[in-house]
Amino acid sequence: MSAKTLNLTLRVWRQKKPEAAGQFVTYKIDKISPDSSFLEMMDLLNEQLIEQGDEPVAFDHDCREGICGMCSMTINGVPHGKNRLQTTCQLHMRSFSDGDTITIEPFRAKPFPVMRDLVVDRTPLDSIIQSGGYITQRVGSAEDANAVPISKTIADKAMDAAACIGCGACVAVCPNASAMLFTSAKMSQLNMLPQGKPEKDRRALHMVQAMDDNGFGNCTNIGECEAACPVGISLDFIAMMNRDYAVAKVKKIFSGAA
Amino acid sequence: MKLDSKIPEGPLAQKWTNAKFNYKLVNPANKRRYSVIVVGSGLAGGAAAATLGELGYNVKCFCYQDSPRRAHSIAAQGGINAAKNYQNDGDSIFRLFYDTIKGGDFRSREANVYRLAEVSVDIIDQCVASGVPFAREYGGMLANRSFGGAQVSRTFYARGQTGQQLLLGAYQSLSRQIALGQVKMYNRHEMLDVVKVDGVAKGIITRNMVTGKIDRWAADVVVLATGGYSTVYFLSTNAAGCNVTAAWRAHKRGAGFANPCFTQIHPTCIPQEGEHQSKLTLMSESLRNDGRVWVPKKAEDCAKNPNDIPEDARDYFLERKYPSFGNLAPRDISSRAAKEVCDEGRGVGAAIAGVRRGVYLDFADSIKRLGKNVIAERYGNLFDMYENITGENAYERPMRIYPAPHYTMGGLWVDYNLMTTVPGLFAAGEANYSDHGANRLGASALMQGLADGYFVLPYTISNYLATIPLGQAGKIDPNGPDFEEAENNVRSMTDKMMSIKGKTSPRSVHIELGKIMWDNCGMARSKESLTDAIARIGQLRERFWNDVCIPGEADNINIELERAGRVADHLEFAELMCYDALDRDESCGGHFRLEHQTEDGEAVRHDDQYGHVSVWEFNGVGKAPVKHIEPLEYENVQLGVRSYK
Description:
The structure holds 2 protein chains of 2 kinds. By secondary structure, chain A is an alpha+beta fold. Chain A is built from 8 helices and 7 strands. The relative contact order of chain A is 0.13. Classes of the chains: A alpha+beta, B alpha+beta.
């Protein structure tokens, strides 16, 4: 609704192929409405580039309502930009001022190679879920949904963890490229619920192993991940994961199980 | 085109049981010899791929996003219906069935809808067992909320993120099957054609969206779970990548398209702010449980701060017009009522092209009654999202909402077994037309997606595969002439688009198409508007094919090439939508023909002439499609005028 528009300078990471060298390219873009979303501003940049005969900037996005986790981008050095609790698609141009220079890069992390421009490969996060981020249960075998009461406290806490959108900002912001916040959110959700208990130890051991196997680093309690997380996943889950992992490891040493 | 609905014998409540008993089975040891392709990884596709993999079939699953967890089912907010009757408020399978049939304005197939209501109870059990953290009460039991078009509380939810939690549940089951090697997942692959061998679907052609490689994939059966087509309006609540391509290209290969004009315009979305906009954002219908919808009584109050408008100067138009359902009137009815008051000049918010298109959704009374904390607990994430987008705080100032294209009830025609008119080609979830008639009730899309994926397809696909002799299972040759022809078809379309090198961007064509469709085939349609649209779509299509500009190469990530292919399909599909809307000379659910309304603006159906499913056969680009009819027979419900007054 604001009448004033913004004229901006964008420094955008351009990289044609995964193996190609990348570089920043500077573009000017004018008359951006403060009510535009950041991605709408990128759409307009691309329209401008096409008109000039250049190739548009490739970037990932889909739902544009902050839930699918597909949009990425590091904006002025921060994954999803400086606003807290926001994905790139929910960031709006009213957070910027006329005349600003904005630096736009892909999510930077060793396990997330750049595929083109701002597009990175985040499939290692899928691999972590595949290693144990599920409950083994056959369709058709479930008992009545109210047969096992779950206290509201546990259900709410599990939902807090389950809110993770799998965007990978936690990895991109971490100096160690650790996926502990992501992994712990899924592990804690499932380990907390009665339905997830039978596989608790197995899950803890396998998911931690998968983090290592996929090249993610360790957690050194910096806490940047929590600050960058667009949905506010708490560091407490990392503590829960460490505890579940320790218990599972000890049990394994003494019984050989899991 | 032969339409055999294959509705099973027996009384309504016995049909699914009878069908399951009569279905042929595949021996457990032989299942691994059969191969299945699932396109799409949302609730229907993800659940189907996981479940078919779990049964032992060899499954390949494809999605255009970077991970199956991104499918747009994830964005559903409010909840999922199930006839559990945990609230002891009079719900039953028959009531859910009846509400869905009535909500759909009597344009869906009884047997399918009954089956949906029947398996709804199993879905909740399944989801809880797979770790979905539904909302619970202090005693540990599942909580429910109510939703539009129903007078019982049967909606299960996980804050305002129900779709996310259900999708992640299915995605986790899918992930397990991927790890076990039962499902092979192909991310960033877009399906561009269906391959038929001797008239039977036996594979697909895809484009690898990273390398541009065109691949052939063969299988014994193909499932399309590729969602709806609301992006034909450009501005919609759908994800930017949602498209009609898979369904449309299947249609061009002979799959009948049913009721394409049945589109749902959702009443509670954030109004458009300006021309720059790329999508519209939904605010869950569940907000209408605690929010009251109003506009000023007088047009001169519209620009005022809403908090300064006194109670007696407000028109709570839904409560006034529909006293028994009030703010929970069904979606089509609420949307039209909002349009009506804005057309009268009583809308609020920014004016676009001279008209304010917005109504207030006010939580002040609920906050007074329940406290801000309760409202924040129920809808906190939605209020945050609203503030992100509009910069306004809805705890202090009423939200502004306006209807937006959301869900599409039409889709590929399927029989009771969810098979299209192409043998071996199945369609599930929003991609098919089967369960919602002319209007879908809230919290029923998640129900249908999971019903199809977890509980229907695993039976019906097995039944289909059992008809393929074991000796032929998994032995389709992807080097055969039909595969070659389909691949060449895809290649020539890509080459043609790339070679035009004109001046018009695919996005600008899409925006223009969206405007034509919204103005002429949106919330209100008429013979004139639809005829006009058909002419203009043809011209726009011509311009696209003469002047589209796609920079870059086809053998790399090329976002404009992806977009152009989808826009090209929308340019053909939009025409079909208009033909269908023109042909259906009645008002019904989401399809409102200005020629057919009562004095106070309610829809007038013509059951005698249009009590059927319109199924369209492709007849060439730019040519009028051929209509076929599946009559709808109602044995268990009385057709009535839908009244929510």
